Amino acid sequence: MFAGFWHKVPLVRITVPVIIGIGINMFYPLPTHVAFIAFGFLLSINILLHFIKVNPHKTHLKGIPLNLLCLSFGFALNTFHNQLIFKSHFSHHQANYFVVQLDEQPLKRAKSFKAKAKVLSCIDSLNSQTPVSGLMILYFEKDSLLFTQLNYGDLILIKNNSHEISAPQNPNEFNYKRYLAFNQIYNQSYLRNKDFVQLNKNEGNIFWAFAYSSQKYFNKILHQYVQTKNEIAVAQALLFGYDDDIDADVVKAYSNTGTLHVLAVSGMHVGLVFWLINLLLKYFDKRKYQRIIKVTISLSVIWVYSLICGLSPSILRASVMFSFVAVASAIKSSSNIYNTLAASALVLLLFDSNTLANVGFQLSFCAVIGIVALQKYFNEWFYFNNGFMEELWKIVSVSIAAQLATFPIGMLYFHQFPVYFPISNLVIIPITTLIIFIGIALILSASLASIFSWIPAILGLIMNKLIWLTNNIVILLNDLPGSYINGIHISIVESILLYILIAYFIVYFATRKQRFFRNGLIACCLFFSIQIFESIKIHNQKFITIYNIKNHVALQLVDGENSTIIADKLLLENEYKYRFHLQQHIWASGITKTNSIDLNKAMDLRFNDKIISITNHVIGNEKNILLYGNNFIDINKLTENKQLNKIILASDISKTRKDFIKQKLSKTKSKIIDVGENGAITLSLNDF
Q: Above pLDDT 90, what percent of the chain?
């Protein structure tokens, strides 16, 4: 059965090794020449084997080289999509100024404005202009008057004060550098008023210009008729995927209840638009020319909507897949859904192989595969005579299938599992579907407001109340006891093992063949072996971490599953900074109990047989480490002590002050560690 299925999905057999090759090359890249030589060599081998007759019982003699060819193609493709290998990239040129084009509509941030820009040319000290390529993140100072006049597509001349994006400064912190690198962005620049000059306006792609102008128009309608801030923010996310204005607590509640996917325009939204168009054009199926008209209209609407929503990877996946379905329907061709999904993935990866690293891309494909493969089995668990109950169970079974297919990714990236996801999706999906349709009707009716002003007014009021209801239901579910499990931390290898064991057990229950159960059991044993090994490691761990958090002092003492956080009060009370800089490391270290101590004065802390001093007092000979912060400085007394093992300079000390301190400490025998310059440091007790 499984072998028969595998022969029916040739595109899947090609796409899987390509994806594996891309994935490996992202983390362990081959040198450029090696990747292309390997691909060329394997291509030659496969061409040669094509003309050689092989025993039908030994098809693996051709299958193995073909899989290796697809694997090497993934390596070569990902290498080709790395812009840094090209000499035209602006980072390979000396420049005093850059001519850049805004590649997106600028976004407002807490302390600045942000925009992605394409670098078009560089100007050197001799005023010689050279065409270049590459992307850069620009930050404009918040009080910049000129910035308010900038829009997508505008050309500006900027001073070259760009620098490479910094790597994470603390253990297990979100790797923003790697995230941007997967999007081909390696540099950023902060610009004041005097650092840039506007050159030309509206020089961008007309399609993106249309998308941004459409978003502005939709925003204007939502502000006019929906009116309240929180409801407008959620409406923007539901209708066209703009989620920057949503309150952080609301986003957290949606995430904890397993309904965050409704706020990101994805397959569900594109599917609703596709369904609506097919419903309106259902009589265009009788003749061939009518089907051509129908598919043309369907594809046009889908891609225009996807463009307005920003063409995120999840939207692209859905748009490409529905395009294949629409074309197949028009030509009356039956297609295998797995081949359609594989073709969608392959097309997207051919355009940009780094799309594979996008979480939305991964979640989108896994969710659809889970729904296609598993929903029908879950749907058969219960049978209802009542049509309403049957539809409700379909929603629940779809939710279970999608959650089962995506929970390893959810645990890998978000470290949590929503316990009440069947209930939350059962309630939220129908309401948000209704909101989306009302939103579409509101936008369409707003153009007739001069004649029928009461129609958009009523639709806006209904939309406002429904979004308010949705937000409050999500918050209520989030506040229920045990609504979610967080602190889960698994590695990429463990997540892959979870997918392998899930796949084998599903195939076993479908085929009842023992070998699939045995292979699933092996994957299960490997997964739990890693878990046991990590548990032993956690039980025996004893270390100190001194964090690098700008303008703050923070350290963590870890003993097994227990830890103590010592930090200034401002950091302990700042939920965002605590979660971003410290929380991931706490979860990754397997810590289950954490105490916090407010660092408001000098103190000595005994950790097993060691003493850590945070002080401006005389240091006794028995002390091993001194954490030296801006608020605890007595440089003369410090230099009197000759017995310190390590002196660690905290990240709240200014650079000028640090240089002065280092000069004073150069006469001591202590090892000086600058956390602000080198990043956080983790010391095992065996290190001192």
A: 13
- Domain with 601, as residue range(s), is 542-687
The pLDDT confidence band at residue 100, using thresholds 50, 70 and 90, is very high
Same domain as 564, residue 508: no
Regarding whether 497 and 478 lie in a shared domain, the answer is no
- Residue 611: phi, psi to the nearest 5? -125, 130
How far is 262 from 608, CA to CA, in rounded Å? 49
Instruction: Name the nearest CA neighbour of 73 among 19, 9, 28, 132.
Output: 19
Number of H helices and E strands in the chain, helices first, is 24, 21
Q: Does residue 643 lie within any of the structural domains?
A: yes
Q: Report strand pairing: 112-123 vs 107-108.
A: antiparallel
At 136, which helix (H) or strand (E)?
strand 135-141
Average pLDDT over residues 332-348: 81
The answer to whether position 398 is within a domain reads: yes
Tracing tokens 């812009």 back to the chain, one arrives at 83
Mapping DSSP onto H, E and C, the string for 22-63 reads HHHHHHCCCCHHHHHHHHHHHHHHHHHHHCCCCCHHHCHHHH
- Indicate if 196 and 310 belong to the same structural domain: no
pLDDT tens figures, 278-305: 777 777 767 777 777 888 888 888 888 8
Residues 551 and 529 reside in one and the same domain: no
How far, in Å, CA of 358 to CA of 343, rounded? Answer: 18
85 within domain boundaries: no
Query: Final residue of a domain: which of 173, 204, 235?
Result: 204
What would the pLDDT profile of 557-573 be if each residue is shown by its tens digit? Answer: 888 888 888 888 888 88
Helix (H) or strand (E) holding 301: helix 288-308
Q: Can you tell me whether residue 97 is helix, strand or coil? A: strand
Residues 605/595, Cβ–Cβ less than 8 Å:
no
Say whether both 250 and 193 belong to one domain. no
Q: Pick left, alpha or beta for residue 512 (phi over 0 → left; psi -120 to 50 → alpha; otherwise beta).
A: left
Query: How many structural domains is the chain composed of?
Result: 5
Q: Which of 462, 117, 439, 458 is nearest to 308 (CA)?
A: 439
20 plus 42 within the same structural domain: yes
- 373 domain residue, yes or no: yes
Question: What confidence score (pLDDT) does residue 389 get?
Answer: 77
Give residue for tokens 């595998």. 6
Contacts of 573 (CB under 8 A, 6+ apart): none
Which has more confidence, 198 or 667? Answer: 198
